[in-house]
Amino acid sequence: MLKLIGVETFYGKIKALHGVSMAVNEGQLVCLLGANGAGKTTILKTIFGIVEPEYGTIHFNDKRIDRKDPEEIIKLGISHVPENRRVFPELTVYENLMMGGFLIKDKDLFEKRFKKITDYFPVLLNRSNQQAGTLSGGEQQMLAIARALMLKPKLLLLDEPSLGLSPKLVQEIFSIIKDLHQSGVTILLVEQNVNHALKTTIWKKQDGLWKGLTWQQYGKFSQDIGNGLLASGVKKGDKISILSQTRPEWVMCDMGIICIGCVTAPIYHSNTNNQVFYIANQSDSIFAFVEDQEQLDKMLAIWDRLPNIKKIVVLDQYHPSNLPNVYSLDQFLELGREYGKKHPDQFEELIDTCQPDEVISFTYTSGTTGNPKAAIFTSRNIIASSKHLPDATGLNSEDLYVSYLPLAHIAERLIGHFLRFLVGNPTVFAESMEDMPQNIRQTGPTVVFGTPRVWEKFYSKILTGIDDATSLGNSYW
């Protein structure tokens, strides 16, 4: 159906596409993967006639289209959903769809098409008189796709439809894309990451947007952590502390530690300096991962009493940035990547040498009645417990779990971390305990695990909201 042969596109003197050749057959859903700046968006713009290639040819249904305008290309049966949605914000939803169906001159035919499209996107029917600029990001993405479908395209070009959307909305959008494909629409889909070509395992908030990490990215991060530790002289059986709130880096550092045969010694982020000292000292830790400036300051205050700890890696930015034996996360990952190039097989060889009854972690009690006490866990302990949790919790691969409780506690670590290796479900990492309720509303998890105290706080907050509400607000309660 679509064929590109040796296509080269320039922006001024800058070559954006270098001899691109590819084909999309009728009925296929083809996913074009690549990092930012790889030229994915430019490929779609070139196909659609927004930019003109300097060299090469583009054919659609055996007709050459590389010198045609977008209006001619639309008439041939190609529609384009641009990156960042690009709806007309001042126009209503209905008027946006009229723009998408501008070639349909018969009003009855247009209304029939409008009904067909809003069957796919019922929320747009309910918002048909609403200005597009006031829609949510997910609704604007639905509108952009709906607008492109108004002319019944034979080929749909989709540019990063998941960009900036919450996990719940991403699932909705990709479910719609799957339905469209099954209805017979050929689709060329661009994605920055392999989040839906390979399975997403972690969702985290970054720069105000929910972003996904795949199992492949998870594994590579953990491997770089493990190799960074090996490059730092860490040996099998050494103990490594993690002093941080719950976040994706926590679990990926944990796996890097365990995979090379070392032992994770978690420390609660709320611990005082003396409590941090006790656990780091009692566990014989020789290395520490700390979350941010606050946690680094705790370690710096007691480091002179911890001669075994040789290096500290800070997950967030910190100041000053040139402290001796203190590394930024980026520096440490780069150290691991370089070590991995020189020793490409060592990480996996160490995984193969690990035995089920070897210790992989300590978990410390809170220390409210005395010094914290360490519980010892082996791989066999974790596997035995995890095997029964799917039946006990009902968790399956289609569920979306939210992780917010301290990973220094074994309950969250089992359900929010280790269990995913058996079940394969994705996990949303809340920004913090305080932000967790808002994060739940944004991401729509299907499973939330909590202690009685968590549910008591939820209940108390609801009651407070009712008490503080106006009479109109109370009518909704």
Q: Can you offer a commentary on this structure?
A:
By secondary structure, the protein is α/β, with parallel strands linked by helices. It folds into two domains: 2-197, P-loop containing nucleotide triphosphate hydrolases (Rossmann fold, 3-Layer(aba) Sandwich), CATH 3.40.50; 213-445, Rossmann fold, CATH 3.40.50. The chain contains 19 helices and 22 strands. The strands form six sheets. The protein has a five-stranded mixed beta sheet with strand order 12-11-21-20-22. A five-stranded parallel beta sheet has the order 14-13-15-16-17, sandwiched between helices. It is globular. Residues 193-197 have low confidence and may be disordered.
What's this model, at a glance?
With 477 residues, the chain is α/β, with parallel strands linked by helices. The protein has 19 helices and 22 strands. The chain folds into 2 domains: 2-197, P-loop containing nucleotide triphosphate hydrolases (Rossmann fold); 213-445, Rossmann fold, CATH 3.40.50.
